[in-house]
Amino acid sequence: MTIFLDENSRIVVQGMTGGEGRKHTVRMLSAGTAVVGGVNPRKAGAAVDFDIDGRTRPLPVFGTVADAVEETGADVSVIFVPRQAAREAIIEAVDAGIGLVVIITEGIPVADVARALAHAREVGARLVGPNCPGVISPGRSNAGITPADITGPGPIGLVSRSGTLVYQMMYELRDIGFTTCVGIGGDPVIGTTHIDCLEAFERDPDTEAIVMIGEIGGDAEERAADFIRENVTKPVVGYVAGFTAPEGRTMGHAGAIVSGTSGTAEAKRAALEVAGVRVGTTPSETAALVRSIVGR
């Protein structure tokens, strides 16, 4: 099984006609993902041709997400629209009945994300991101920008604030494979958290071990540690990026800033270890810890 996304997911791309939307739609289609169309009000009724393994694959462009849902049965949206249009795009998707919205766009104002997230929660939709690589269930579906050829299906679940470290951990454990990999994004306000993914992986019978990657800033990892201690029975291996980050400086993500001892990598590692999580000091050491657990 997988979490959030599987081979039956039908994906619409908001912003498919733009440069990034086109490029990553090709990636998703090449991975076998069921991308069913795009949304652009100015190009409604058109079609975009994609070259997939030497074959032309036309996808329709709809004027609204509601039209796409009605015509194709789409239940997932991947958003590539500019930051100033992102809030409206998210709200449009959830109001059209989309249950999972993956927001790739970066630099969205925090207030816009907070308003869109509050609305999504009211209607029962899940947001992943913003500023994230998305969700991939290897061999089944890929909603976002994660390269699909790094790894295959297997027994590991992965959740990470860092997109780059999603890719690296997938590569480090490529011979074992993953049920689902979720890049949740590193902004101060995000739709899906470590805890959401931990809870889903705990319920998934095919996930044997969980890798949780965090980074400096905030208290998300400490809260996840509390959740693991009380609710997770499966082995969890952790990694926290930013052990050498200087105090008071933002590192990479908008949420990766520390003040004093709050939000430091050491504090997060300590909290995770108290919860029984084995924490690696490098991605490669973290992968080795996972191997020792799954026995491969």
Radius of gyration: 19 Å
According to DSSP, the number of beta strands is 14
Number of H/I helices: 9
Provide the structure class.
Answer: alpha/beta
Give a nutshell description of this structure.
Helices cover 34% and strands 25% of the residues. It has 296 residues and is an alpha/beta fold. It folds into 2 domains: 10-128, NAD(P)-binding Rossmann-like Domain (Rossmann fold), CATH 3.40.50; 150-294, 3-Layer(aba) Sandwich (Rossmann fold).
Explain how this protein is built.
With 296 residues, the chain is α/β, with parallel strands linked by helices. It has two domains: 119 residues, NAD(P)-binding Rossmann-like Domain (Rossmann fold), CATH 3.40.50.720; 145 residues, Rossmann fold, CATH 3.40.50. 34% of the residues lie in helices and 25% in strands. It has a seven-stranded mixed β-sheet, with helices on both faces. Strands 9-8-11-10-12-13-14 form a seven-stranded mixed β-sheet, with helices on both faces. Strand 6, helix 4 and strand 7 form a beta-alpha-beta unit. Helix 3 packs parallel to helix 4 and helix 7 runs parallel beside helix 8. The longest helix has 14 residues. The model has no long low-confidence stretch (mean pLDDT 93).
Key features?
296 residues; Rossmann fold; 7-stranded mixed beta sheet; 9 helices
